[in-house]
Design brief:
Number of strands: 12
Shape: globular
Distance between the termini: 69 Å
Radius of gyration: 18 Å
Strand content: 15-25%
Largest sheet: 9 strands, mixed
Order of helices and strands: EHEHEEEEHEHHEHEEHHHEHEH
Structural class: alpha/beta
Helix content: 25-40%
Length: 294
């Protein structure tokens, strides 16, 4: 007697901004990412536990993001946990896409179901809410870089809704608990200030950059409490910094800072971008600007 097993198809989150925010042609996308990474002239020595990278259109923030992602070349991880802010859906807590895959022009990135389940079990602030991921670009803009520099690494995609202190601390604690025995990369996706002139933007962004340089998530928490517009993904940055520290990271390096006017030529209303890495490093690596946009 024949028996049949019905297997439900795995959900695939389709790319939302391919063809607009970045090329939907894999050869062109690879060329763009490789070109930005080739300009990076700094490399940290030691263990990289986390990166902080922007999420604007690739032509604007890609040259900065490359500074963070180039540090991952030659390294390997069991999972990459990517945390970004929600731009389109308002909700409490953090939304995980717990199974299946995410599509990009390079193919699909598999979701690490085991790690997603462990994070869900570790903190009540994370819940299964796939709808929050449908249009969101803050994670999507990180995925082609991950596929290019650490190909084959599964992901856990997390979207943070209202960036309350309870949510940020709950996520940080949950990540530290769930990932303590894993070789995990944490990714915080965030742009900085929006639509100020370049001089004012640099002043506002300096607050975030200084807190990252000093590996001081508490200082960043206080600053964002007074002025949330310092960064659209300030909550993800704080959560990743706290989780990375709990998992053993001791050092932070800011690698590049720039703003959208460096590409557009319009300095009257810019968006700020920063690239940084967290881990355990040796030697110094000073923050840069011109290298990211030349």
């Amino acid at each position: 007697m024949l028996t049949f097993t019905f297997v439900m198809p795995q959900p695939v989150r389709r790319a939302a901004v391919a063809g607009t925010w970045y090329s939907d042609l894999p050869d062109i996308l690879a060329r763009d990412i490789d070109r930005y990474c080739a300009r990076v002239d700094r490399r940290v020595s030691g263990d990289v536990a986390a990166v902080i990278a922007p999420h604007a259109g690739l032509m604007y923030s890609g040259p900065v993001a490359a500074y963070a992602y180039q540090q991952l070349v030659g390294r390997s991880y069991e999972v990459a946990v990517v945390v970004g802010p929600s731009h389109y859906v308002g909700f409490e807590g953090v939304a995980v896409f717990p199974e299946g895959a995410f599509e990009t022009p390079f193919g699909t990135l598999m979701v690490s179901e085991g790690d997603a389940a462990a994070i869900l079990a570790a903190t009540p602030v994370v819940r299964d809410c796939r709808a929050a991921h449908r249009r969101e670009h803050s994670l999507e803009m990180q995925l082609p870089f991950l596929q290019r520099v650490i190909p084959g690494t599964p992901i856990v995609p997390l979207i943070m809704g209202h960036q309350t202190r309870e949510t940020v601390l709950g996520l940080a604690a949950g990540l530290a608990t769930a990932l303590q025995s894993r070789r995990a990369l944490l990714v915080a996706s965030s742009d900085l200030s929006h639509y100020h002139d370049a001089r004012q933007a640099a002043k506002l962004d300096r607050v975030v950059v200084d807190a990252i340089e000093q590996f001081d998530p508490e200082a960043l928490d206080r600053a964002l409490g007074k002025y949330p517009d310092h960064a659209c993904g300030g909550g993800p940055i704080i959560a990743v910094m706290r989780a990375a520290r709990a998992l053993g990271a001791a050092d932070s390096r800011v690698l590049a800072y720039a703003d959208s006017g460096d590409v557009s030529g319009d300095k009257s209303a810019v968006v700020g971008y920063v690239a940084a890495v967290l881990g355990t490093f040796s030697g110094n690596c000073l923050p840069g600007r011109s290298e990211a946009t030349r």
